[in-house]
Amino acid sequence: MKHKNILIHGYNKTSSDMKVLKDNLEKLGHGCIILDLPLTYHKLEHGTMLLEEMLSDLIKDLKEGEKLNLVGHSTGGLVIRHLLSFTSHRKYIDKCILVATPNRGSDFANLVGRIFRIAFKKYKTLKSIQSCELKRLGLGDECNDIDIAAIAGNNNNLFFGNLLREENDGRVTVKSVKIEGLKDFILLPYGHKDIHYQPVTAELIDSFLRTGKFKVD
């Protein structure tokens, strides 16, 4: 039985940013639901609690043996990780995939915190994804009983990427995406804002959902 796939957008985006990925996955036979979360002006924790409530409603409609897969782009992946750290719905979650997610903290948010901290008064999600803030959330044990994989990009096609010394996708370093405990990890030659639009990304997600591994034909 194929499970339902929940797609979660990143910082300062809406569900429309995940529509291409949704369409690509549906062409491969997967049912997808895209959600809108307040990931601009509110703390990350607020978005996570709303996701928990949304999952509570979705779980009511699951068929016997059916589960949920969670796929998040960028900050959406952090919402997934935070959710897994406390949710009462773990038994209904099968696999999770993090796409270009700053798992060790966003270098962009870290930079804003150093030179333009007043911005955090308005953009509270941005403040939440600083390295120091993620440490406060105590993430790290999410992979214990749920298979989690990550996809990173290394096409530095954004101005901010030039300020980063390490390999990056223009916004997030490869090192920040790759963390311990992942079931699989793969690097693609795309940038932060377009990696989730690529057909190959959907193909890799499809592979992991079916086999537990990223397999490229």
TrEMBL record:
Domain (AB hydrolase-1) ranges: 6-108
Pfam families to which the protein is assigned, alphabetical: Abhydrolase_1
Superkingdom, taxonomy of origin: Bacteria
SUPFAM superfamilies noted in UniProt: alpha/beta-Hydrolases
Annotated protein name in UniProt: Pimeloyl-ACP methyl ester carboxylesterase
